[in-house]
Design brief:
By secondary structure, the protein is an alpha+beta fold. It has 5 helices and 4 strands, in the order E-H-E-H-H-H-E-H-E.
Length: 166
């Protein structure tokens, strides 16, 4: 993944990373990606990232699941196999609530997982090649487009605690 057309900047703490992201964006350089070992609070706004639509997908999937679960039970107990037991009416909404709830949760979870895998372009044969071996352990890394010179990046980041710029 790493090639001569990218510049990697390595940090060992999140505060210098956030400062560097802000300074690099102010300088007009193009940040390709930022790799962190854990979620960093404030990184999304610093990168001007949009809010994820995965919660919306989860809501729509849950609504579809709830409707399908309730509809299936309604069809089974009123049309396909109507049985009166214990004096219960054929369409007994309170007894449908547990299955409807479970179908809602199942469809919401599966739709969010599917949306995540599709958006991330993840599939079983996807091979992960880390830009730097330390990003999977304890380092923070910014990947900058190589059209900006490394010298310009070094001057922009002067005064910020970086481990290396390559």
């Amino acid at each position: 993944m790493e090639n001569a057309k990218t510049i990697t900047i390595v940090f060992d703490d999140e505060q210098p990373l956030l400062q560097a992201v802000k300074k690099i964006r102010e300088s007009g350089a193009n940040i390709i990606d930022v790799f962190t070992p854990f979620p960093v609070h404030g990184l999304d706004p610093a990168l001007s990232m949009k809010r994820s639509r995965i919660p919306l997908v989860g809501f729509i999937g849950g609504a579809i699941g709830g409707l399908l679960g309730f509809g299936f039970q309604t069809w089974v107990f009123t049309v396909d196999y109507p049985l009166v037991f214990g004096g219960k009416p054929l369409l007994s909404v309170p007894s449908f609530i547990p299955v409807t709830f479970e179908c809602t949760i199942l469809f919401a979870a599966l739709s969010m997982a599917g949306a995540f895998f599709i958006k991330s372009r993840l599939k079983p044969d996807k091979k992960f090649e880390p830009v730097d071996p330390d990003i999977t352990d304890d380092k923070f890394l910014i990947l900058v487009d190589g059209e900006t010179s490394a010298e310009k990046i070094k001057t922009v980041l002067s005064g910020i605690n970086t481990i290396e710029i390559k």
